[in-house]
Amino acid sequence: SSVTMNVAKSGYRVFSANSSVACTELAKKITERLGVELGKSVVFQESNRETRVDVKESVRGQTIFIIQTIPRDVNTAIMELLVMAYALKTSCAKNIIGVIPYFPYSKQCKMRKRGSIVSKLLASMLAKAGLTHIITMDLHQKEIQGFFSFPVDNLRASPFLIQYIQEEIPDYRNAIIVAKSPSAAKRAQSYAERLRLGLAVIHGEAQCSESDMADGRHSPPCVRNTTGHTGLELPLMMAKEKPPITVVGDVGGRIAIIVDDIIDDVGDFVAAAEILKERGAYKIYIMATHGLLSADAPRLIEESAIDEVVVTNTVPHEVQKLQCPKIKTVDVSMILAEAIRRIHNGESMAYLFRNITVDD
């Protein structure tokens, strides 16, 4: 057919790295916008849970884009991506570009006690499997780009979320942008400046939380070996202690809009909403790029003081929406499609980063 001729001539193909409804759906949205057909491949788990990929058409000398959304089982999704990239590499594809809207393991990008920087490992694995370029969105830390030996386009969802605020939140000019912790303050500041709104930051923690278990501050103290060399006497560091919760900035009589990059474990968000309500905020929105919304997140949101949670479709969350009508989705397939088109045509990506600041 003329369509397939077209695809062959254009010299690039788009594949979906699995056939889950969610991934195929995003891939369909993207290929429809590009006017190409989805590449033919079969990705499945053998009965012993091994990942198997069969590419059903020739890819020799072509530029291939692999779309991989990360659904529940993150490790299977990574393996699918690795095996598919390798299958394409060994079939002589010229370029293999991963379209990974939510990059997994991105929270494990800093060293913890006897841990490892898993997102660096993942970057190396993807390169080894044959990927030559990645398109992603809102990396948890922008510095993760430096873990890769090939180009990374870290697209931003903020223009879409800001547009949502302006168009869908009535009276948004009476809103204040809130960071639920000081670490989210940079992103919040970037939103506040572009929307010309005020900024509030929540600091401290409820005095019975276990969130500080993760950083090894409670690991047993090392027993001083009294015999032999004692080593240098280093100054004793004061143990960190988070103060009780305070809100820096006045939210009274305002709409509070909490912004963040990932919403997964919603405990922090629910607690923040409670505090903001106590301080007189009359409506509470949460805006985040990646709506992982694991476990019983939908129920907790539904029962909370939060009025609306707005996320993009970088991560599939249809099931969660059925359980919680407060969850709304902003479609970002357009910018992913545009990135694919520009990379294929060798056009500048700068256009996609208009008004994007360093802190965004």
Automatic annotation (TrEMBL):
Example GO BP: 5-phosphoribose 1-diphosphate biosynthetic process
Residue intervals of the Ribose-phosphate pyrophosphokinase N-terminal domain: 22-130
Record's keyword annotation contains Ion transport: no
Single GO cellular component term: cytoplasm
Coiled coil location: none
Keyword Transmembrane: no
Pfam families in UniProt: Pribosyl_synth, Pribosyltran_N
Family: Belongs to the ribose-phosphate pyrophosphokinase family.
PANTHER family registered for this protein in UniProt: PHOSPHORIBOSYL PYROPHOSPHATE SYNTHASE-ASSOCIATED PROTEIN 1, RIBOSE-PHOSPHATE DIPHOSPHOKINASE FAMILY MEMBER
The protein, known as: Ribose-phosphate pyrophosphokinase N-terminal domain-containing protein
Native source organism of the sequence: Dicentrarchus labrax
